[in-house]
Amino acid sequence: MENHSQQLWNIYQSASFLLTQHLSPHAHFAIITAFNPMGELLDACQNRLLDRQLLRDIEALGVPYRALVGTNEQLSHMEKSWAVFMEPDDSVRLAHKYRQNALYYVMRDELMLLPCRMDSEPKKLGSFRSRVRLVHELPELVPTDRAEGVASLGFQFL
After folding, report:
1. What DSSP string runs through 56-78?
2. Most buried residue, 22, 54, 93, 98, by CB count within 10 Å?
3. Average pLDDT over residues 108-120
4. Would you say 34 and 54 are in contact if contact means Cβ atoms under 8 Å apart?
């Protein structure tokens, strides 16, 4: 199990992000998803339900937020996520509620990976902006036979 956790931790370190516009380089925010709790791939319907529940919790906080998509470099795995303008400790508690192994936190363009349910140390990952791909609109995540989110055709990088 620890080997699997280490593999996930390493995968999380190579994430990229799809946004429709840049966020301020001076902003502090968490990047949280409800998709695939504890690294277990769920079907699209289950992930959408969890995402709606997370959005309700974010709205109840009364803080600014923005939708984005977390992805790997090949765009073969995507997870709907939220940039939420909140403190790191509060964001870890929220991600923990949705059984997330980890979350990202951005402070003045410095991207950090914060463990939530993993026995790891926070990891600085460099510039957030360098991992952002601007798109005209966020891709629709459609179901696949392995419950892995993939982009629908029809989105363009800016």
Report:
1. HHHHHHT--EEEEEEE-TTSSSE
2. 54
3. 96
4. yes
Long-range contacts of residues 120-125, Cβ cutoff 8 Å, at least 24 apart: 120/5, 120/9, 123/13, 125/13
Only one residue has tokens 């509060």, namely 90
- For residues 80 and 149, is the Cβ–Cβ distance under 8 A? yes
List the one residue out of 75, 54, 43, 32 whose CA is nearest residue 143: 43
Instruction: Name 146's Cβ contacts closer than 8 Å, sequence gap at least 6.
Output: 41
Q: Are strands 141-142 and 65-71 parallel, antiparallel or unpaired?
A: unpaired
The predicted model scores a pTM of 0.89
Is residue 150 very low, low, confident or very high in pLDDT (cuts 50, 70, 90)?
very low
Residue identified by tokens 């891709």 is 139
- Cα–Cα distance, 20 to 66 (Å, whole number): 10
Q: Tell me how crowded residue 17 is: count the other CB atoms within 10 A of its CB.
A: 21
Q: Residue type for 117, please?
A: R
Average pLDDT of the chain is 90
Residues 47-96 pLDDT 10s: 999 999 999 999 999 999 999 999 998 999 999 999 999 999 999 999 99
